[in-house]
Amino acid sequence: MCKVLVLLSGLMLLKTAMAESGTIYFSGAIVEPACTTTTQQQGTSVTCTRQGVDKVRTIALNQSQQTLPYQLGTVSVKSVNHVKIIEVTYK
């Protein structure tokens, strides 16, 4: 019984080592640009383009989380030592 367990565990290790090799190919294209953030004296805005149409959303720096145009994700605003940090997260 002990010999069988040793043999089985050896085969499991061999199979794991063999599974770590290989090549994965990805194909596709990025067809729309990422959203852009613009900060001016009047405020901060996020512009997203889809199918050639721009949508602009003004970001309120006093709110913690807001949505991107086209519902592409969220914008989080954080304050650290009197500095505003804008984090954009895509879905």
Automatic annotation (TrEMBL):
Signal peptide: 1-19
Name the UniProt record assigns to this protein: Type 1 fimbrial protein
The organism's place on the tree of life at top rank: Bacteria
Keywords associated with the record: Signal
Organism: Candidatus Pantoea symbiotica
